[in-house]
Specification:
Elements lengths: L1 E5 L5 H4 L6 E3 L8 E4 L15 E4 L9 H6 L3 E3 L6 H16 L2 H10 L6 H8 L12 E5 L3 H12 L3 E5 L5 H6 L5 E3 L2 H7 L2 E4 L13 H5 L5 E5 L8 H10 L2 E6 L12 E3 L8 H21 L20 E8 L4 H11 L4 E9 L2 E8 L5 H8 L4 E6 L2
Parallel strand pairs: 1-2, 1-3, 3-4, 4-5, 6-7, 6-9, 7-8, 9-10, 10-11, 11-12
Antiparallel strand pairs: 13-15, 13-16, 14-15
Helix pairs in contact: 3-6
């Protein structure tokens, strides 16, 4: 029986995918699996029993990834599960930036008690007039699950779409409309586009990428949309761009003191994935990732260990080893089985940065002496007998 713990409320649509082999526990210290959304785990004491953490969402800045890796805890996220919800909000952000719908609504609310409101509206509506997005150029930085959906939707709305992603995956390329212009230099986005939307992860290389130098290259009156991470933009530089008129609107899903209520900023309270459907999809994917890892040792969508899939084990046993990505590890693993007279029928080894993952299917049952011997190898974080 596996035990799982939820650090946040998790959609029952996902939880109900757990089989009878799983039991929910209110005690983190007893759990083999954890499901989490936004709760911070940096100060938590993670138990020895914990094997995996699944973030029901994309961002994992609330999880200590390196600490988990060195404890042999595989961390998953759910890329793409909330993509449609974010896509729809990006489209809404473009519309709100193009036409002062919010200002018009506020005017109506402020004048709701006037008998002349209908007549006055005809005079006032010119103050809220804007432009259409059809025919405008949209630049998308990052063509992952969300970026591709935004690109295809914008094409359907009659926009001319430019996409930039030096790491465009094969799957993303297959799903991307042929009408999207794939550019090889982000400066082409800055120079040509009326709207620019960012959909890249927050890394050292992307932090503050929308800064004064980038803004200087953009068209006059550009609209910038940020539904990825607030730190991707140097918001002081963005405010300076708004004040100079270089930037027409800044649309962000991240409320903070810098941009909240500032003229020219349209800010929502992190609503991107806050739809019933997104929460359901993220929960379902997270549960499936946890089950596949606990039951079969397979890893998909990990953020601290490499993806690795050997299907279901059809041999007598399967062992999984989480370890440092250093030389001579495989030799030591196979030697341990050889000395015990155990034949390895299948094996895979994958690495990701400093960390690696090895799975072996064997013809004989795996004894505790083998497990203890593998644990003693320098660089091994955790050894699991999966079957």
């Amino acid at each position: 029986m596996y035990k799982y713990h939820c650090l946040n409320p998790i959609s029952n649509y996902g939880i109900q995918n757990f089989t009878a082999d799983y039991e929910k526990t209110d005690d983190l210290q007893q759990a083999q699996g954890v499901l989490v959304r936004s709760a911070s785990m940096h100060e938590l004491k993670l138990p020895e029993s914990l094997l995996t953490i699944a973030r029901a969402g994309a961002g994992v800045n609330n999880i200590p990834l390196e600490k988990c890796a060195e404890q042999g805890i595989v961390v998953f996220n759910t890329p793409g599960a909330n993509a449609n919800g974010v896509k729809e909000l990006v489209i809404a952000g473009m519309l709100l930036a193009s036409r002062d719908v919010v200002g018009g609504i506020k005017w109506v609310e402020n004048n709701k008690d006037k008998d002349t409101i209908a007549k006055d509206a005809e005079k006032e509506k010119k103050n809220f007039a804007g432009t259409e997005i059809a025919g405008k150029k949209l630049g998308i930085i990052g063509l992952g699950a969300i970026g591709v959906k935004v690109a295809n939707a914008a094409i359907s709305l009659g926009m001319e779409v430019y996409g930039y992603d030096p790491y465009l995956s094969v799957d993303a390329a297959w799903n991307l409309s042929r009408e999207v212009k794939h550019v090889l230099n982000v400066d082409d986005i800055y120079a040509n586009c009326d709207f620019i939307t960012i959909h890249v992860p927050l890394l050292d290389s992307t932090k503050g990428m929308i800064n004064a130098q980038a803004i200087e290259k953009m068209k006059q009156g550009v609209v910038i949309l940020n539904f990825a991470r607030d730190l991707l933009a140097n918001e002081q530089d963005v405010l300076a761009g708004l004040e100079s008129g270089k930037i027409r609107k800044y649309v962000s899903d991240f409320a903070n003191p810098t941009v909240a209520g500032h003229p020219g900023c349209i800010v929502t309270p992190h609503l991107g994935a806050s739809t019933e459907e997104s929460e359901d999809n993220c929960a379902k994917m997270a549960v499936k990732e946890v089950m596949e890892y606990l039951e079969n040792g397979n890893i998909k969508n990990s953020v601290n260990y490499p993806n690795c899939d050997m299907g279901k084990c059809t041999s007598a046993g399967r062992i999984a080893i989480l370890h440092k990505n250093i030389a001579n590890m495989i030799t030591q693993f196979t030697a341990a089985f050889g000395e015990a007279g155990i034949n390895i029928t299948d094996m895979t080894n994958k690495s990701r940065g400093e960390y690696a993952y090895t799975m072996m299917d064997v013809e004989s049952n795996i004894g505790t002496d083998i497990v203890e011997g593998l644990k003693k190898i320098d660089g091994v974080f955790r050894v699991r007998v999966v079957k």
